[in-house]
Write a structure and sequence with these properties.
transmembrane; elongated; 2 helices; transmembrane helix; membrane; mainly alpha; 0% strand
Length: 75
């Protein structure tokens, strides 16, 4: 099992990458909200659960999904 698919940016699939960037951006927004001394929106922390679910789903696809033979990147 290749654990680099969990953390190495080049090994992440789109779902994992979106989840990581989303969690970072949500954390940054939460920090700004606190620094500006504003009330955090109700349910804001559920965003992190959504990012986690997306990351786990992406990880499962990354490990167990089979690449489709019809999808190729052309340069």
């Amino acid at each position: 099992m290749d654990f680099s698919k969990l953390y190495h940016p080049n090994a992440l699939n789109s779902f994992q990458f979106i989840a990581v960037v989303g969690a970072i951006m949500s954390g940054g927004a939460q920090l700004i909200i606190r620094l500006l001394d504003h009330a955090q929106p109700e349910g804001y922390n559920y965003l992190y659960l959504c990012w986690l679910a997306l990351y786990i789903g992406g990880t499962l696809l990354n490990y167990f999904g089979k690449p489709s033979s019809g999808h190729h990147h052309h340069h």
